[in-house]
Amino acid sequence: MLKVTHPQWTTRFAFILAAAGSAVGLGNIWKFPYITGEYGGGAFVLVYLACIALIGVPVMMAEILLGRQGRQSPIRTMRSLAQAQGASSGWQVIGWMGVVAGFLILSFYSVIAGWAFAYIPEALSGNLNGLDKATAGALFGNLTASPWTLLFWHTLFMLLTALVVLRGVQAGLERLVRILMPALVGLLILLVGYAMASGRFLQGLDYLFSVNVQAVFYTCQAGTCTFTAEPLLVALGHAFFTLSLGMGAIMVYGAYMPPQASIASSALLVAAADTVIALLAGMAIFPLVFANDLAPGAGPGLVFVTLPIAFGSMPAGQWFGSLFFILLLIAAWSSAISLVEPAVAWLTERWQWCRIRATLSVTGLVWLLGIGSVLSFNHWSGPEYQWFGKTLFDLKDYLASNILLPLGGLLIALFTAWAAQRRFSEQGLALTRGFALWWWLIRYLAPLGIVLIFLHAIGLV
Ligand code: TRP
Fold first, then answer.
1. Is the CB of residue 334 below 6 angstroms from any atom belonging to ligand 1?
2. pLDDT tens digits for range 69-123
3. Does domain 12-457 correspond to CATH entry 3.40.50?
4. Burial class (CB in 10 A: 0-12, 13-18, 19+), 1
5. Residues 298, 319: Cα–Cα separation, whole Å
6. Crossing angle, helix 405-414 and helix 93-124, to 10 degrees?
7. What is the pTM of this model?
8. Ligand 1 atom 7: the closest Cα is on which residue?
9. CA of 25 to the centre of ligand 1 (A)
10. Which of 274, 332, 245, 296 is nearest to 61 (CA)?
11. What is the rounded CA–CA span in Å between residue 240 and residue 244?
């Protein structure tokens, strides 16, 4: 069989940029604030941070390690590593699940990225100037009510994604992310500054950081309150989502990583950058939510209603607004690439498809699936198109983020710490200190934590 050799990142820094580009995306700026709002604030944030530190970072190290030792697409990496370790070739299921999760996620991710896209011309043309609560809501409502508009932007975003993946992940991506990251952070800090002046900054901080277990973990009806574990599962799922873990994206990027680079410090840096950006987004958004008398639990539209109001009333908001949505679009773009790369890498290896054919097939299928997400906001938003009270859009997110990604992470942890030899990790990570801690986290805490949260959420413990 022909062996396909994949490219390599030029430096460790390039790997970090690419991984951070994958991690930082709509998950940080769109999803984190809206689910924090839906699940009631501080206690949710705390659980999320614990999931990042105790489960996310160790699993990210394992995922990079597997990728770098396997050097192929996740499916084939897992198969050859399993063989080398004398384990069942069934472990390649990690790669397969990842491909499915990637399809599901991108098919709604692209539609949201399309919202950011659609807001760029709105901001540029001055349509956000002077927006208030009602007009901002109407603007967003009109956008999501129109399937053709959504389809248009979704199509454009998928084309953009295909364009970069076609040319290979290296060309272009590295340069893009190098400029994007600092600009995004700068703009977020500016927005936090604006939020400070909104008069409700402390209320926003309080909402984000003060831990109210009752509000998050108990649902109360007619005076009786029952504990609910769903926020736990959602926090865990989001930790995986925001770090791009559990589906092979980081694994395939790890496969292109130079052999000498430190895995541990790369993973820590990526996770830290990702977390800081999510918290900045929260600190920018919640004060504005309260200052404008909006509901924190408004759902997926939260950011797209809140921020336009802010841009509409700040000096030069037309420009800051345009810049913000452009940056958000680029952040989504550099994430989307990593969602298709595992499938594309596999098609080129296994079937020797050329990159063009592989990319167009994968993105074409995602585009098709995305039509379901487009319709979830209009024609298919009614109860007759809902399952378990969720629209197709919600369902795809729930299935991928809360089930497939944690399950993928669980299997990655189990393979690394139970199926493979300890020596495999010792040599691959080459840590001078901290190995024992990581080993304990990946061998016991991460798998146990994931299993417990799962069982709890489905009502078994
Ligand atoms: N992490 C990205 C975000 O926060 C989304 C993403 C990109 C992703 N690649 C992924 C999520 C792989 C899960 C798996 O927006």
1. no
2. 999 999 999 999 999 999 999 999 999 999 999 999 999 999 999 999 999 999 9
3. no
4. exposed
5. 26
6. 140
7. 0.93
8. 335
9. 7
10. 245
11. 6
